[in-house]
Structure to design on (229 residues):
């Protein structure tokens, strides 16, 4: 069965969903917070997410859009509204399906089974590993590993996220504000936060800011990871 992440701030509903999904053989993790949900999606790699829109720290729609920036995990959105405009907005923002409250445990289980079938069919018989290759760098976002010329790099979680994001946009100059928004999910952090992690990455890539190989700073604009060092 599947690993399900339930994002719901109502403890009564969370408990009911744990019991209902557990009865269908699923493994369930839960959180009441949007930022915690994003961490679980990137680090815990659930098979499917059930996302409520009313969260205390971050809007469910924002969680959905941010999750789509880092993961292809199937996401079922629970909403209290069933009008066309709401449903279209959810689907256009990256939802794979939706549930209108109140919904039954049987309906939820059936929807989960349906999105998993679609996800597996789209992936083919063997799931594609999300691997990025830039010159001598190989970054596996599924396994969360990075290698340079075959040697594994020992990276912190944030260093890996930053390197993977730069590799995904290789040869593009990315502003610090964009990186803070897309990687840190906190656009109002101080920009020197990025410089600290860049400095650590440079050391691990065996380069210096004065003589960069992969990580180039474009003064006054941003940072890029080059594909032809």
């Amino acid at each position: 069965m599947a690993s399900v992440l339930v994002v719901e701030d109502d403890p009564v509903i969370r408990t009911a969903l744990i019991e209902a999904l557990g009865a269908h053989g699923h493994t369930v993790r839960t959180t009441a917070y949007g930022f915690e949900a994003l961490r679980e999606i990137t680090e815990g790699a659930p098979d499917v997410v059930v996302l409520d829109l009313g969260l205390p720290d971050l809007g469910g729609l924002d969680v959905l859009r941010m999750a789509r920036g880092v993961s292809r995990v199937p996401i079922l959105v629970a909403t209290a509204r069933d009008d066309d405009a709401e449903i279209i907005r959810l689907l256009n923002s990256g939802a794979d399906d939706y549930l209108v409250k109140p919904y039954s445990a049987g309906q939820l289980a059936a929807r989960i089974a349906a999105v998993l079938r679609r996800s597996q069919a789209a992936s083919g018989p063997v799931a594609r590993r999300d691997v990025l290759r830039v010159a001598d760098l190989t970054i596996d976002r599924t396994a969360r590993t990075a290698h340079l010329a075959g040697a594994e790099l020992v990276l912190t979680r944030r260093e890996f996220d930053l390197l993977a994001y730069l590799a995904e946009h290789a040869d593009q100059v990315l502003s610090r504000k964009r990186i803070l928004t897309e990687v840190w999910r906190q656009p109002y952090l101080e920009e020197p936060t990025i410089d600290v992690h860049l400095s650590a990455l440079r050391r691990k890539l065996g380069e210096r800011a004065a003589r960069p190989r992969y990580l180039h700073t474009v003064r006054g604009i941003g940072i890029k990871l080059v594909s032809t060092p």
Summary: The radius of gyration is 20 Å. Helices lie at 11-23, 34-44, 60-70, 84-92, 105-123, 157-168, 176-184, 192-205.
